[in-house]
Amino acid sequence: MRNHRVRVHRSEENLAREDQLAWAMAQVATDPVDLDDDVVAMIVNRVIDNAGVAAASLARSAPSAAREQATAHVASSGGDGATVFGLDSSVRTSPEWAAWANGVAVRELDFHDTFLAADYSHPGDNIPPVVAVAQHVGSDGASVVRGIATGYELQIDLVRAISLHKHKIDHIAHLGPSAAAAVGTLLGLPTEVIYQAIGQALHTTTTTRQSRKGEISSWKAYAPAFAGKIAIEAVDRAMRGQTSPSPIYEGEDGVIAWLLDGPDASYEVPLPEPGEPKRAILASYTKEHSAEYQAQAWIDLARKLSGDNPDVADPERVDSIVIHTSHHTHYVIGSGAGDPQKYDPHASRETLDHSLPYIFAVALQDRAWHHEASYTPERASRPDTVALWNKITTVEDPEWTQRYHSTGGDASYGGRVVITLTDGRTVADEISVADAHPNGARPFGRDEYVHKYRSLAVPVLGEEEAERFLALALRLPELGPKEVRELTFAAPAGVLPPPGPPGIF
After folding, report:
1. Ranges for the MmgE/PrpD C-terminal domain (predicted)?
2. Which of 40, 151, 453, 485 sits most deeply, having the most CB atoms within 10 A of its CB?
């Protein structure tokens, strides 16, 4: 890897485009280096993973509304159109709208992959726009795989180096550029075109982090889909010769100078050397549980603690529960956020899956986690749960913050919990990473990805349709254009809800 140094430049310095971060990213996207077999295998895993969580969300409100928006737009004249999850493959819409609908379905349950470093990310959000454009233009599976590899590489490299959340910028500001570059790789576009698309995508997907604060709304699922849609539109404009603000990162009125660390800032963004394989996807990890990633390890620990000592789940026997964890976990999903909504039994599902006190309480009591049952209003408002929930607080521990930011492959996303019982006894334990993490007790491999997919997709799609999609996805690198266009799934009659309130389209 090489470190690309990024700093703010005054306009009169006339920073050459070849020295800009967007250009360096575009060069990575156009590098024809072969993909390693383990990278290809992981890309297949993530396509399967995305499909499973999308299938499980089809009947929910946000994916349903996004699907209705998408199907209101006929396929554009430049290709055959793209498919929408839940509908027959003969139903086509424009690729940017298919990416929109499918991206919302993937993100709705907060249940697919993650990478955490200087910032947060769900790099699987790069997949819907790549597949949608591939279906529209007739790309083969090998091209899809190459595009996805670029998306993962660039988003993860940005997340390693540049913090957005510190400045209250939503993490889709790293996704817009990576998705644009991913589509550029898919299409085999020149460096110049991808450079312009990256600039446009960043400029138009830099949004505030209020989408993940307080009472979290349905927009949380739409945000990455918006980035994917905008990325496709940015590529289209760039292909037509249209240019973007430049230098988008380094300019004196650019993103870094005014929205991030300011005019004196500098970053070192790690990027692959020319000819170096794109392997960043292997640093990311999926979720075993449908909750914010920084809660994954705590669900696993809660199940273990409750199994060993049932008293810890009884609010009558618990005096307090204090979770010692990293800065990120404490301030984003813990009591350090200062959001009273994180203790509100009537809060939205999106808010509850960003409340570590709620998640830990339910996991202690149920010794399990379910993407639907763990979030129902009845479950959230159960009196004994509310009582236990309100005894749980988080505190930042510098040791766990340091471990969170480790770059040596041993990063930790857990912490230590101390449970004080009313009889004076103390129960304490710690966990470094989730069981499903590559360094965890039960790392996810192909079998686990397939099991997760089947457990989510079969109850919704039926076994025949779920297995048809799975068989195609497992052969992704070998698929021809016709088979790529079948890389979707249809829900049987009665699964999808009737249309909701009409909009403009």
Report:
1. 289-475
2. 151
